[in-house]
Amino acid sequence: MREKYDYVFLDTPPQKTKTTIPALKVADYAVLSAMPDHLAVSVLAEALSDIVAAQKHANSNLALLGVILCAVPRPKTRLATALVGYVEQSCVDATSRTLKFSTEISRSVVVEEAQLAGQTIMQYQGDHPVADEYRTLAKEFADRLNRFPQEQAVAPKVEEVVHA
Is 2 helix (H, G, I), strand (E, B) or coil? Predict the structure, then answer.
């Protein structure tokens, strides 16, 4: 597949499943997404632990490219603000640089409407502000992906997330 495609994206659940572990074994990078709520943060900690385990036992080249926050309430609630800060501080590389993507995807009913219609947000309502957020995130994602190979691939500091 590497000869045929520049990038292959495998979208798996964050919990250990029959698809998640094999995907981590063959991936170059992992990207995690989470909503800013306390349950999602605990699942994020488990996913980070799975990435570190895959790095140690099956895929030493696996690197965490970043963490995307989705369904962020606007304006942010105090809880969402605290949890976003927690992710920024806890999901860091070995140089203590945050791995959270700066672009956050706002909570909006238009996302669910697009899903119900079987369309992407771009197809459903491409001029919506959330569609613009996804475009910005895509640019940020591409920039990070293009920059990442030149930087030292570093493992996340999972202990801080898991034990916090």
Answer: coil
